[in-house]
């Protein structure tokens, strides 16, 4: 059976992901003729996705032109909305943040209510940063809880910006951010311990969302000895009900999670004990996940992770004791390396993985 000829989208993937930087190597990798390679490179360059400069190594005669992915060839708009605060950013096509601002929204605003405000703030951010709105190639929004992307792509984002919009859970976005720009492990479990508790799972280098996008609801796994603790989900005994931010604030003099984390960092004995016990409770459900999934690293993020030492210590204590010896032999349990930026960078990665996929690139080129 003959192989489908490589398209311009396939060529871009080789340049962007595999680092192929000469026309000759593209020809070898794809089997395309020199004129076909030249046509595809020219098409990508005209679309602002590839640059060419004559600095390749010479083997006699004119040196070959060096190809490179052009991260400056467009902008993606991203927003990461948590339960208590949010951030917006404009990024280049490599996911580098070009401009960033806090979301001007009340805490806990639903996605459908927040989106018109986010669209306006994105447009204001582009103007303040001097970025051309015509260069926007995609947009992504991360929200708390289970995110239903149905209708989002062809909804207000496309109507107002003329580009595809992508929606995901804020914890999945943070997991993607940690994977792409923090921990490079292909098997990564990200646990967000904040107002609520959730998880994002990277397996084989890809985010796992489940059949209906409901994967990662770690906060609603029951823990022993908490049967009488009611949870907002309608059940009782959930780890979030006893170790989530709201539960800890109810037992602390702190008014906010930022204050609680500051007390823990300052060594306040009662707060340190409270956060470490929360880490133990979270560790009970993480231990089960480690046995089931065998990740290479567990990353702890969220507002409670700002008090990293007692939280991480509590999780480690239980996971290393209760998970199997093989699953924990090389397991690392670490605080987030990206902090608040994990969600924004992950949102950018989510959008870029989709709009720069070969089929999406080919469709965009055909639309021109």
Description:
It is built from 14 helices and 12 strands. The protein is an alpha/beta fold and about 375 residues long. A 5-stranded mixed sheet has the order 5-4-3-6-7, with helices on both faces. It has a 5-stranded mixed sheet with strand order 10-9-8-11-12, sandwiched between helices. The longest helix is centred in the C-terminal third of the chain and has 25 residues, at about 270-295. The radius of gyration is 23 Å and the shape is globular. The chain starts with 7 loop residues before the first helix and ends with a helix. Belongs to the ROK (NagC/XylR) family. It comes from Actinomadura parmotrematis. InterPro entries: ATPase_NBD, HTH_MarR-typ, ROK, Tscrpt_reg_HTH_AsnC-type_CS, WH-like_DNA-bd_sf, WH_DNA-bd_sf. Pfam families: MarR_2 (PF12802), ROK (PF00480).
Estimated share of beta-strand residues: 15-25%
Portion of residues in helices? 40-55%
**Spatial separation of the terminal alpha carbons:** 32 Å
The chain-level mean pLDDT equals: 90
> What is the strand tally?
12
């Amino acid at each position: 059976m003959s192989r489908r000829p490589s398209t311009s989208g396939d060529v871009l993937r080789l340049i962007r992901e595999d680092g192929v930087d000469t026309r000759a190597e593209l020809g070898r990798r794809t089997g395309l003729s020199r004129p076909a390679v030249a046509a595809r490179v020219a098409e990508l360059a005209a679309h602002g996705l590839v640059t060419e400069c004559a600095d390749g190594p010479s083997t006699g005669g004119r040196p070959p032109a060096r190809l490179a992915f052009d991260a400056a060839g467009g902008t993606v708009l991203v927003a990461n909305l948590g339960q208590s605060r949010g951030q917006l950013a404009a990024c280049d096509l490599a996911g580098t943040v070009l401009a960033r601002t806090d979301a001007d929204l009340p805490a806990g605003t639903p996605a459908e209510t927040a989106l018109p405000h986010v669209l306006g703030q994105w447009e204001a951010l582009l103007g303040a940063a001097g970025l051309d709105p015509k260069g926007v190639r995609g947009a992504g929004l991360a929200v708390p809880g289970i995110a239903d992307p149905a209708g989002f792509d062809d909804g207000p984002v496309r109507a107002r910006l003329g580009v595809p919009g992508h929606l995901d859970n804020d914890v999945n976005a943070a997991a993607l951010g940690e994977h792409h720009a923090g921990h490079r492990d292909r098997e990564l479990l990200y646990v967000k311990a904040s107002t609520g508790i959730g998880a994002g799972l990277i397996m084989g280098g890809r985010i796992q969302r489940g059949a209906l996008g409901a994967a990662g609801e770690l906060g609603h796994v029951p823990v022993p000895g908490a049967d009488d603790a009611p949870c907002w989900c309608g059940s009782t005994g959930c780890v979030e009900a006893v170790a989530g931010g709201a539960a800890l604030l109810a037992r602390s003099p702190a008014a906010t999670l930022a204050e609680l984390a500051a007390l823990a960092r300052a060594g306040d004995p009662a707060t340190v004990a409270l956060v470490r016990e929360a880490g133990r409770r979270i560790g009970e459900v993480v231990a089960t996940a480690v046995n089931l999934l065998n990740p290479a690293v567990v990353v702890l993020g969220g507002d409670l992770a700002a008090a990293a030492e007692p939280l991480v210590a509590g999780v480690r204590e239980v996971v290393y004791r209760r998970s199997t010896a093989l699953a924990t032999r090389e397991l690392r349990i670490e605080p987030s390396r990206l902090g608040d930026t994990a969600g924004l960078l992950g949102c950018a990665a989510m959008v870029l993985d989709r709009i720069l996929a070969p089929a999406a690139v080919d469709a965009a080129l055909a639309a021109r």
